[in-house]
Amino acid sequence: MLNTLNFKHIYYFWVVASEGSIVKAATKVNVSNSSISEQIKILEGRLGVNLFERRGKNLVLTDIGQRVYNQTNPFFSSTEELFESIVNHKKTNVRFLRIGLVPGLPEDERYDLTFPFVEDITYTVRLLKGENASLKQAFEERELDMILTINDHLIPKKQAERFIIKEMEHVFVCSKKFYSSLGNEKFPQNLDKKRFINFTNDSDLHFELYSFFHSHDVSPLRIAEIDDIFVLKRLVLEGQGFALLPKSTVTKEIKSKKLIVLSESEQFKRNLICYFHKSFREEPFLTHLRALKEAP
């Protein structure tokens, strides 16, 4: 069977399956749409099966097509990474490091955490931002090599190394204008019926906040659920409501009095955790993790 096929038959199939359309595949490999279509027809003809079915403007894999894709994807993905690393003039034994970042991490934290790996010529880094559930699935399917998260419930089913980098402190904050509307009651009773921006239920903090409010018989008015720290901080600065934010990301605003800390005594702390596959238990990977742990 294989001696009747050439590399382009299978490669073009893989590109179309990955891109979801012939037009996108043709653009990626820089050939005409008709050339892609012809190679797919030849492959299907020689296999005697349909690998795709059309749904609207998109091509969807049939059951057999999915089986073929599952078999060819690891080969083409790793081969593409190999040649990409050579073209990028890195070492031919470069390792791709695919890092998943949850939305609850501030932008500056994401930069500080990933820069050592980007700077290291040993690795070519790819960053993926997503929700906890999707990142966990990608990790378990070996599409990610490590995840940086502050959510303890994110525990991959398959065996993984767990490294605690540091503890992140969170504080309740609001704008000066919003603070003037709170009244004279003590925290947290002064937050009852006040506008509140929570994290989504994908975050551990979502449930911890509701538990905290319930224990104090306080019912803030939830106006939004947002995990993106930048957006959350912007809304608080504009006086849209109060929220719990990582202290490190609002330090400047607190010092300049653009934001008010509602309570110094009621503070939430979360561990910043790195999950990674055991295949990365090596130097310099572990050296970078230890350095991040020791950083101020």
Can you walk through the features of this model?
The chain is α/β, with parallel strands linked by helices. It has 3 domains: 2-72, Arc Repressor Mutant, subunit A (Orthogonal Bundle), CATH 1.10.10; 95-166 and 271-294, D-Maltodextrin-Binding Protein, domain 2 (3-Layer(aba) Sandwich), CATH 3.40.190; 168-270, D-Maltodextrin-Binding Protein, domain 2 (3-Layer(aba) Sandwich), CATH 3.40.190. Helices cover 43% and strands 23% of the residues. The protein contains 11 helices and 11 strands. The protein has helices spanning 7-19, 22-29, 33-47, 63-87, 107-119, 132-140, 176-179, 204-215, 229-237, 247-255, 285-294, and strands spanning 52-55, 58-61, 95-101, 123-129, 146-149, 161-175, 195-198, 221-225, 242-246, 259-261, 268-276. Strands 3, 4, 5, 6, 7, 8, 9, 10 and 11 form a 9-stranded mixed sheet that branches. The longest helix is centred in the first third of the chain and has 25 residues, at 63-87. The model has no long low-confidence stretch (mean pLDDT 84).
